[in-house]
Each structure stands twice: as C-alpha cells, then as structure tokens.
Q: What sequence folds into this?
C-alpha cells in the first residue's frame, strides 16, 4: 500500500491556528510580539526567506520587521545592530539570516544575540538548555520535524529513529528531540560505513544532508515514517537525476530543473508508511515554528 503523504502546509496552518489564543491573550495585555529579521547583503534566496518570515508574522497579527544591511557591512557594525535590537524593549525575537557574507564571523553574531530573543535557537545557551532537557527556544526546523512525526500518530517512544545528517541546525537538535521522546536514535553522516543497512533498521528516518535522492526505496523498512528535510534543486544532467521517478523527471524535462529532497519521493512512497513531500513537507513547518518561538519569546519576556 502506498504511503500516506504528510501535508506540511496543512499542519503548519494548524500550528498557526493554535497560536491565535496565545496571541490574543498577549494582545489583551497590550503586547504585540515583534520579530526582527536581519539580512546582510543580496543573496536572493535569503531575501525570499526573510520577507516570507516577516510577512507571515504580520499575517498572524504579530509585528514583523526586516532590517536589511548592505553587503559591505562590517562585522562590528552588525554586532552593534544586534546589541541595539537586544536592548530594544519592543523586540521579542531576533533572527539573523544565514549564511552571512564570508568576512563576517557568524559564530560571534549568533553568540551576540540575547538568548531570550534567539528565536532560531542557535545561541549556545539555548543549545545547552535543549541538550539538558530544560525549557529553551528550540530550532525551528527540528521542532517542525517533531510536529510532523507526531501528526502521524506513530509512537516515538521505543522506535528506532535514524537521523541522516549531523548539522548543528538540523541533525543534532533533531536527534536530541527524538531522544527526549524516548526513541532509540542513530545518527548517520558522510563517514557512516553502510548507510543503507542503518536506514533499513529505521521506524523513523529524518534525512537532512542536502544530497538529492540519497535515500532510495530499496533502503527503507516497509511502513516507516520518512521526514525529508532536504531541499535541492536538481538540474538536467545531474547524476542524481537518474534516480528520479516519472513525475519529478517530467518536471525536470519540462522546466530544466526540479526541487527534490534527500529522499527519492516516488519510489520511497511505495514502501514507506508515511512520507513528507518536497516541496510542501518540512518547509512550511519551519516558518510556523518560528512564529511559535516568537510568541513563546514574548510570553517569556512579559511573564
Ligand atoms: N538559513 C537557512 N536556514 C536558516 C534558519 O533556520 N535560520 C536562519 N537564521 N538562517 C537560515
């Protein structure tokens, strides 16, 4: 039986709907949570992401602001801006869109953000709190991944979860969250000797490596839950294109490129129990969880 598709857009709307009473309760106290997203330079993908984050905030009744700094901005200037945002009592959430221009020390910038306003959950204080199982602002994509898994109704406790990828932004925090939900967790990465053998044991697979179609149907345990965090633009002539199913292949042939995850969707959907599509799976959840973090940051600051 083919997999059920996990509808990230619909679940993101549910998350947003669940925020409404909390936003209303803050509004009744005269508080309108405010998110400031900082973008440095002219990366076109960053421009789209940052604008959609601020727009979503406004749509939900929060205040969303974009601070756009020129590509020539010095690291010290950016640190001064972050300091100003930290001290601005109106601002509840600060997000500095990554990547930053190579000259700027990304780590110094992330560490300069007030942990109470760190709606990305990237500050070492929040990373440490998450690791310790204490209340913290949780990185948005990992938090969204957990909501998607929970939406299937599958029991996480006792399940074997295989996380493919060990980034600080997705792989590591997802593994910690799964562990907190009592999964048995295996983390795979580029040096893993036999990825297929690991993935085949998984009741839950979270793929977050940025390698198009790395995970294929023959690697999967039938009936499992597959969460695909990858977002790769595959061009004609790319070697991974050979793995595509007929529908994605048709898009590639028509448009010259196609968006694919780290999982080959069409084949995997024949084997898995549940699977997230790309696009329309994890992507919409990230912004919804950012909104949740902004509301939580405001609640925390105005307790
Ligand atoms: N760049 C890509 N993903 C993210 C994210 O989640 N947060 C920030 N700040 N930058 C990103």
A:
């Amino acid at each position: 039986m083919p997999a059920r598709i996990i509808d990230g857009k619909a679940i993101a709307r549910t998350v947003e709907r669940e925020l409404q009473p909390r936003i209303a309760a803050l509004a009744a106290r005269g508080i309108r949570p405010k998110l400031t997203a900082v973008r440095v330079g002219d990366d076109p993908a960053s421009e789209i992401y940052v604008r959609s984050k601020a727009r979503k905030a406004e749509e939900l009744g929060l205040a969303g602001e974009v601070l756009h700094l020129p590509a020539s901005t010095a690291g010290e200037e950016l640190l001064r801006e972050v300091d100003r945002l930290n001290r601005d009592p109106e601002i509840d959430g600060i997000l500095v869109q990554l990547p930053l221009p190579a000259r700027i020390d990304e780590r110094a910038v992330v560490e300069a953000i007030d942990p109470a306003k760190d709606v990305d959950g990237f500050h070492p204080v929040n990373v440490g709190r998450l690791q310790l199982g204490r209340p913290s602002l949780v990185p948005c994509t990992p938090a969204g991944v957990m909501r998607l898994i929970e939406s299937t109704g599958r029991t996480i406790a006792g399940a074997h979860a295989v996380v493919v990828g060990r980034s600080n932004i997705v792989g590591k925090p997802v593994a910690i969250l799964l562990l907190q939900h009592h999964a048995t967790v295996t983390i795979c990465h580029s040096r893993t000797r036999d990825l297929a053998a690991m993935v085949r044991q998984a009741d839950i697979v979270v793929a977050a490596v940025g390698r198009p179609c790395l995970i294929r149907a023959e690697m999967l345990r039938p009936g499992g839950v597959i969460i695909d965090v990858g977002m790769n633009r595959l061009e004609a002539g790319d070697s991974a294109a050979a793995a595509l199913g007929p529908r994605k292949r048709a898009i590639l042939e028509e448009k010259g490129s196609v968006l694919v995850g780290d999982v080959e969707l069409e084949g995997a959907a024949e084997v898995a129990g549940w699977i997230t599509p790309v696009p329309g799976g994890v992507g919409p959840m990230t912004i919804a969880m950012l909104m949740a973090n902004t509301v939580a940051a405001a609640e925390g600051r105005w307790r």
Notes: Residues 27 and 114 are 23 Å apart (CA to CA). Residues 95-98, 120, 140-141 surround guanine (CB under 6 Å).
